[in-house]
Amino acid sequence: MNNEKESALTAMNTNGRSKLTALLYKTLMSFVGVLVLSMGESFMLAANMGMDPFTSANLGGSSLLHMGLGNFQLMVNFVIFIFVLFSDRHMIGIGTVINMVLVGYEIQWFSAIRQSLFGTANSLTLQIINAVIGLIIFTYGASMYMTANVGVAPYDGVAPIISRWTHLRYRVVRVIQDIIVMGLAYLVGGPFGILTFIVAFCTGPLIEFWTDKVNQKIYNLI
C-alpha cells in the first residue's frame, strides 16, 4: 500500500516538473518570437514604406509627444491590457507581458543596430530589400510567439473579445479594428504605406506557413 502511495506521489511530482519545464520552454519560445518579430519591425521601419497599424499609430503618437517608442507603446499596451484583463483574463499570460513590455524597446534597439550596420535605405531597391526581409522576419516571429500559446498581445486580445460581445465573426471585427487603427496612424503622422496594408491584411498565409512548417514542430517537441 505504501509503495503504491509513493509511486503515485512520484508520478505527480514528475508530472508537475514536466509541466513546469514545458511552460519554461514555451515562455522562452514566446520571448524569442517577440525578439524576432521586433527585429523584423526594425527592417520594415528602415524601408520607410509603412508599418503594421498598431506600431505605426504608436510611432506617430510617440513622435507627437516627443517620447521614445518603447515608453509610449508600453503605456498604450497597459491601457489595453487593463481592458483585456477585466473582459477576459483567460487571454492573459506570460506571453502577454513579454509582448507588451518588450516590443517597443526592442524595435528601438534593433533599429539602432541595423542603422549602424547597414545605414539608411536611400534607394527604392534598398527599401524593397528591407521591406521583404522585414516581412519574412516579422511573420516568422509572429508565428513563433503565437504558437507558444502563453498569452496574446493586448492589441490582439481586443478583436476576440469584441467578436464575442457583438456575435460578429472574428475576421470581420479584426479588419474593422485594423482599419480604425490605420486611420488613427495616418492622423497622427505614423509611418503609413503599402506595408501597413500588407501586414494588416495579407500576412496571414505567410504566418500560417511558418506555423505549419516550423513552429508547430518546435511546439510539439516542447
Strand and helix map with partners:
Elements: H1 2-47, H2 53-64, H3 69-87, H4 94-118, H5 124-148, H6 154-166, H7 170-187, H8 194-201, H9 204-221
Mean pLDDT: 91
Q: Residue share in helices?
A: over 70%
Number of helices: 9
Output the helix-strand order: HHHHHHHHH
Say how many strands there are: 0
Strand content: under 5%
| Uncertain runs | 8-12
Structural class, by secondary structure, is mainly alpha
Q: Main beta sheet, described?
A: none
Q: What global shape is seen?
A: globular
The CA-CA distance between the termini, in Å, is 35 Å
Radius of gyration: 20 Å
Concise summary:
This protein has 222 residues and is mainly α. It has helices spanning 2-47, 53-64, 69-87, 94-118, 124-148, 154-166, 170-187, 194-201, 204-221.
Fill in the keyword field for this structure:
222 residues, mainly alpha, 83% helix, globular
3D structure, described in words:
It is a single chain. The chain is mostly helical and 222 residues long. 83% of the residues lie in helices and 0% in strands. The protein contains nine helices and no strands. The protein is globular, with a radius of gyration of 20 Å. The relative contact order is 0.19.
